[in-house]
Amino acid sequence: QVQLQESGPGLVKPSQTLSLTCTVSGDSISSGNYYWSWIRQPAGKGLEWIGRIYVSGSTNYKPSLKSRVTISVDTSKNQFSLILTSVTAADTAVYYCASETVTGAGWGQGTLVTVSS
Amino acid sequence: SYELTQPPSVSVSPGQTAMITCSAHALATQYAYWYQQKPGQAPVVVIYKDTERPSGIPERFSGSSSGTTVTLTISGVQAEDEADYYCQSADSSGISMVFGGGTMLTVL
């Protein structure tokens, strides 16, 4: 069972760039066994998929976020990352990294990112 | 944007059966997954591929599918089952992951 841990700044200023990293343990990120995803959840609200990356580097993004999102993978560190540009208060949420398989997604514990000046 | 429709809340007494539905056009062709989320915790998959139950998930959790609607059934509900439940699937292209709005299960 793969384990996931998010890390990154908990506070980002409006109009700036949010950057988070997910460290994977228990399997190689290059194994090809998973798709690697980012999902977020504003306080008291539902889950929103942001996008995913496969070890090949191919990506899929939620259409409404595509212009602001980049997901990348660093196989040497067994990590994958999220970059979200031009953030606003609406981007304040708990951000989860997740490992997708046909049996569903495994999740990190989540990290709160607040967008505020 | 494409959405999965769930009831906002369901309430049942302990020992009764809870049924949570999720509807969307693409569910006729895409698998559904169900996640349980307790306060302050990350979601956990309780049903995958419409009807399959992961190891470690109690047998009282089951899933079914009929046309454009999938259903999560919890038989003999226990107090520990009180949580938010989210259905998840893909859009008709099979590319974008989508979630339902979530259902708060209250055990009376």
Description:
The complex is a heterodimer of chains A (about 120) and B (about 110). Chain A is mainly beta. Chain A has no helices and eleven strands. Chain A has strands at about 5, 10, 20-25, 35-40, 50-55, 60, 70-75, 80-85, 95-100, 105, 110-115. In chain A, strands 2, 4, 5, 6, 9, 10 and 11 form a seven-stranded mixed beta sheet that branches. The mean pLDDT of chain A is about 95. Chain B has strands spanning about 10, 20-25, 35, 45, 60-65, 70-75, 85-90, 95-100, 105. Chain B is mainly beta and about 110 residues long. The relative contact order of chain B is 0.34. Chain B is about 0% helix and about 45% strand. Chain B is built from no helices and nine strands. Chain B is globular. The mean pLDDT of chain B is about 95. The interface of A and B includes residues 49, 63, 96, 100 and 110 of A.
Tell me the quaternary state: heterodimer
Mean pLDDT of chain B: 96
Beta content of chain A comes to over 45%
Q: Identify the biggest protein-protein contact and residues per side.
A: A-B, 22 and 21 residues
Give a short summary of the structure.
Chain A contains no helices and eleven strands.
Properties at a glance:
heterodimer; A: 117 residues; mainly beta; 7-stranded mixed beta sheet; 4-stranded antiparallel beta sheet; 11 strands; 0% helix; globular; B: 6-stranded mixed beta sheet; 3-stranded antiparallel beta sheet
Please write out the topology.
The complex is a heterodimer of chains A (117) and B (108).
Chain A: E1 3-7, E2 11-12, E3 18-25, E4 35-41, E5 48-53, E6 59-61, E7 69-74, E8 79-84, E9 93-101, E10 104-107, E11 111-115
Chain B: E1 9-12, E2 18-23, E3 33-37, E4 44-47, E5 61-66, E6 69-74, E7 83-90, E8 97-99, E9 103-107
Parallel strand pairs in B: 1-9
Antiparallel strand pairs in B: 2-6, 3-4, 3-7, 5-6, 7-8, 7-9
